[in-house]
Amino acid sequence: MPTQVEEYQQILQETQHNQASLIAVSKTKPAAMIKDLYDKGQRDFGENRALELAEKYEQLPQDIRWHMIGHLQTNKVKYIAPFIHLIHSVDRFKVLKEINKQAEKNERIIDCLLQFHIAEEESKFGFDKIEVQEMLSSETFTQLKNVRILGVMGMATFTDDMVQVRKEFGQLKQIFDYLKETYFAAQDSFKEISMGMSGDYKIALEEGSTMVRVGSLIFGARNT
Ligand SMILES: *Cc1c(COP(=O)(O)O)cnc(C)c1O
Question: Which atom of ligand 1 is nearest to the CA of 213?
């Protein structure tokens, strides 16, 4: 299935209208499809598996900004640490420490978002508020010099109930506001709220999203 260019341009317009950015989620799609969208001007691409991401990084233009959006195992961090633009899916302290370690090895600072569990479903990864409070007020956290936290990320429940989805995005916005006020008031770069996918990105934008992650609407359904 070819890239849906008209859909893409419309979503891009809507996100730009809301001063948000559009991450094109290219997981499972071939490099050639990514290159097609790159040629239309898209530079931010999201993947959910570290090895697939690293492979595509090798094959594609070097000025692509790669976003890691899927659950990240600590032993895979090293494959993306040299070049990753933003890791949206930091869902436990352990992986943040490993990201810091690999960033140090590569002599860089890696930007990260804290993923929160906002959905009703059990299966979604992410911190809850208490875990994050403990982490952010710990001595160990203050010693991580090679990671920078830019904001939060979350996935709403997979449902047609848009009242529910809106409520969950509202919760993520509240968590963001709380963290900003409590821990990051002095850090201007703490300003990102990554929320919204193909089915709910419009609601996410209305609820304050600064980054939407859209896959199937742009690239077509995934056959997995
Ligand atoms: C796959 C995925 C998306 C994109 O999903 P679509 O419904 O295809 O737009 C967004 N965020 C995450 C974390 C994903 O894994």
Answer: 10
Q: pLDDT tens-digit profile of 25-40?
A: 999 999 999 999 999 9
Pairing mode, if any, of strands 86-90 and 192-194? Answer: unpaired
CA-nearest residue, atom 4 of ligand 1:
215
For residues 119 and 73, the answer to whether their CB atoms sit within 8 Å is no
What is the spatial distance between Cα 29 and Cα 216, in angstroms, rounded to a whole number?
A: 10
- Decide: helix, strand or coil at residue 110: strand
- CATH code for residues 4-219: 3.20.20.10
Residue range 51-97, pLDDT digits in tens: 999 999 999 999 999 999 999 999 999 999 999 999 999 999 999 99
What are the angstrom distances between the C-alpha of 83 and each of 105, 130, 135? 12, 31, 26
3-state SS assignment for residue 141? helix
Choosing from 22, 69, 217 the residue with most ligand 1 atoms within 8 A of its CB, the one to mutate for a pocket test is 69
Give residue ranges with CB within 6 A of ligand 1: 25, 27, 48, 69-70, 155, 197-199, 213-217
Task: Write down the pTM of the prediction.
Answer: 0.97
Structure confidence by residue, pLDDT tens digits, 122-147:
766 899 889 999 999 999 999 999 99
Counting from 1 in the atom list of ligand 1, the atom nearest the Cα of 222 is 8
